[in-house]
């Protein structure tokens, strides 16, 4: 049952909780009881709320900013109303007819609207340049406490610029001249005027002693370069002192001994085939001729070949054969080896076979140009094997370094050998070239820094290896432990008639 209004229409049920129903007329009799009205109101409100809840929630439309120029409308959205600024009462309230207050307010608003911030704390205040009252004079700029003021002739304030105090220094750190007076301005007849420029300039106290504007640019550059040159000179002096200290420390530091690199070629191990070949030659028939050298006429039988076994003394045939192979090696590869001559083991015996212990004529023909194909005076080194009963040594006529050398694996010396070889080379050059040479200034050296023999039978191997390494122009970088290898290598080279 519903309540009927005075006009005979049903009341609409509003879903809002803030809706208030008007109180019924107290004079009109109640149609229904309180309980019935309460039950009906609960039922109607519940049904309305349930129906409203079924509708989907409305979402506000997405706000999109207009990306094109548009004409402002008189009645626009609330966003436009918020952005639109109405001047406040105090901003537009001024006394009627008060021109001074009007001009002051206009200048203030214009200045505040044009404030912008520059780099390094510079604050710049500019006024629009649309004023046509006059041109800004060049003399109307005055600097005071870091601020620069410019006035327009007979007009308002044009530009006021606040400079950074650090800008008063130039690139070299020299402070620029600053004014010490203040600008006196007057506010007369509603306009912002400035005292006469002449009076203002008179009040400025400029000290020409500190004025650097007259200093030319090249003088500033010269001063800067002078300061830089002083710094460079100071650094140069420090470098020289440190270099002297370093040289002193280098002298005090113990020097490292230079270690000569051992060449690989003289120590190339034998292959299995070469080892088998040498072993087969050692076990061959003693009377069989294993190898013969055609040019020298030397033949090596199985019996003579046995001297290359460990523990045996080398004989003349094996030594002479090997020295011939060394000479052929030098001729085969002249750029790799020195130009050398190797005498055989019989040369020195023949040379000292005379009555006075020296006989040049007995060996004169041994070194003819026809026989050798070269002259001894052309050689860098001449090797002479020396046999002393049961010991082998080596003498060297070192024409390249102008000295006589004596090498003994037992550290022995023999000055007589040096004297005889000195006489021989003088006679040899005189006989073959007709020239006299002076060897009195040549050094006579008994080589001490050489590998030593540790037993009583390897002297012959040491002697031929001295000649081998010296002809290579190498240091004597071997010792007693290499003797077994050198014996097998020498046997292999003799069997193949080729020294490597």
Automatic annotation (TrEMBL):
Organism of this sequence: Glycine max (Soybean)
Single GO molecular function: deSUMOylase activity
Official protein name in the record: Ubiquitin-like protease family profile domain-containing protein
A biological process term (GO) from this entry: protein desumoylation
UniProt-listed Pfam families: Peptidase_C48
PROSITE patterns: ULP_PROTEASE
Keyword Heme among UniProt keywords: no
Superkingdom of origin: Eukaryota
């Amino acid at each position: 049952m519903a309540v009927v209004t005075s006009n005979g229409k049903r009341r609409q049920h509003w879903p809002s909780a803030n809706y208030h129903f008007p109180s019924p007329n107290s004079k009109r009799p109640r149609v229904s009881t309180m309980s019935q009205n309460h039950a009906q109101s609960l039922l109607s409100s519940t049904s309305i709320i349930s129906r409203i809840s079924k509708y989907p929630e409305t979402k506000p439309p997405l706000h999109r900013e207009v990306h094109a120029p548009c004409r402002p409308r008189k009645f626009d959205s609330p966003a436009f109303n918020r952005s639109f600024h109405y001047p406040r009462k105090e901003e537009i309230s001024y006394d009627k007819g008060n021109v001074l207050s009007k001009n002051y307010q206009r200048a203030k608003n214009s200045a505040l609207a044009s404030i912008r911030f520059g780099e390094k704390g510079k604050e710049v205040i500019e006024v629009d340049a649309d004023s046509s009252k006059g041109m800004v004079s060049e003399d109307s700029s005055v600097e005071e406490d870091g601020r620069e003021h410019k006035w327009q002739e007979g007009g308002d304030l044009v530009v006021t610029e606040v400079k950074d105090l650090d800008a008063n220094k130039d690139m070299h750190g020299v402070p620029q001249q600053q004014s010490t007076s203040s600008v006196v301005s007057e506010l007369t007849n509603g306009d912002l005027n400035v005292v006469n420029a002449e009076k203002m300039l008179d009040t400025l106290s400029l000290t020409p002693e500190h004025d650097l504007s007259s200093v030319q640019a090249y003088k500033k550059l010269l001063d800067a370069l002078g300061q830089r040159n002083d710094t460079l000179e100071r650094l140069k002096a420090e470098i020289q002192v440190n270099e002297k200290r370093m040289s002193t420390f280098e002298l005090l530091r113990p020097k490292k001994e230079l270690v000569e690199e051992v060449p690989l070629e003289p120590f190339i191990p034998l292959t299995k085939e070469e080892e088998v070949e040498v072993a087969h030659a050692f076990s061959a028939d003693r009377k069989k001729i294993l190898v013969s050298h055609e040019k020298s006429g030397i033949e090596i039988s199985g019996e003579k070949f046995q001297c290359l076994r460990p523990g045996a003394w080398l004989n003349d045939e094996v030594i002479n054969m090997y020295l011939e192979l060394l000479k052929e090696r030098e001729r085969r590869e002249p750029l790799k080896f020195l130009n050398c001559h190797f005498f055989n083991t019989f040369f020195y015996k023949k040379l000292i076979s005379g009555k006075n212990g020296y006989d040049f004529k007995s060996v004169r023909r041994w070194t003819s140009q026809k026989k050798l194909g070269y002259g001894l005076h052309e050689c860098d080194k001449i090797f002479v094997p020396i046999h002393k009963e049961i010991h082998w040594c080596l003498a060297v006529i070192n024409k390249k370094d102008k000295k006589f050398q004596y090498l003994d694996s037992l550290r022995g010396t023999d000055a007589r050998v040096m004297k005889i070889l000195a006489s021989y080379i003088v006679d040899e050059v005189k006989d073959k070239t007709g020239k006299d040479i002076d060897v009195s200034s040549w050094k006579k050296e008994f080589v001490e820094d050489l590998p030593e023999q540790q037993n009583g039978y390897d002297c012959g191997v040491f002697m031929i290896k001295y000649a081998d390494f010296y002809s290579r122009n190498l240091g004597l970088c071997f010792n007693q432990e290499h003797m077994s290898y050198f014996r097998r290598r020498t046997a292999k080279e003799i069997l193949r008639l080729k020294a490597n």
